[in-house]
Amino acid sequence: MHRRWMMPALLALTGAAALVATYAAANQTLVANQSEVAYVTSTMGAEVEGSFGRFEAQIDLDPNKLQTSSVSFAVDTSSVNFPSTDVQKELVKADWLDAAHYPKAEFRSNRIQKLPDGRFQITGTLTIKGHAHEVVVPTSLTRSGATTFASGTLTIKRLDYGVGLGEWGDTSLVADPVVIKFKLALSGMGST
Q1: I need a labelling partner for 7 at 20 to 30 A (CA). Which of 96, 139, 171, 188 fits?
Q2: Percentage of the chain lying above the pLDDT 90 cut
Q3: Residue 192: inside a domain, yes or no?
Q4: What single string gives the DSSP state of each residue in the chain?
């Protein structure tokens, strides 16, 4: 049962990390110890949440020059965290994240738009286990002192990325949708 939750959680975290990275500004520095990438999935109808412990970002975001801005984000798939250590051990295996062959899940932006309500919409390619799909990540920016926080959520389908193969492909056991939640702390960002 715990194995079924682990894979969707990992997928959600990967997506979350990608979303958070997309909202940084030019010459931004990710403040990892104030940032988080989490995922929520359900197993046999019960929700479970996990996270990723290691991720990195290359951010060049200028709200006044969005056409030349870019975001790339990578999550270390072996850093997946899950409430059950047994499930956590399964999530890095071949049926799930396959961390030995795919050590990173990556997001690369190809378009960033400012929305009328002040949020940003970041469109790009999310690649997990060699499966690449375009995603749209709505992101909000808030400021606290010199730190800017980029936060948002994204829902992906784990099976589109080959996560949860074999018996874990049964969506009555582990749901296909995975919600990725992120909050990235960034230093060096000007006002939006």
Answers
A1: 139
A2: 69
A3: no
A4: -HHHHHHHHHHHHHHHHHHHHTT--TT-EE-GGG-EEEEEEEETTEEEEEEES-EEEEEE--TT-GGG-EEEEEEEGGGEE-SSHHHHHHHTSTTTT-TTT--EEEEEEEEEEE-TTS-EEEEEEEEETTEEEEEEEEEEEEEETTEEEEEEEEEEEGGGGT-S-GGGG-TTTB-SEEEEEEEEEEES----
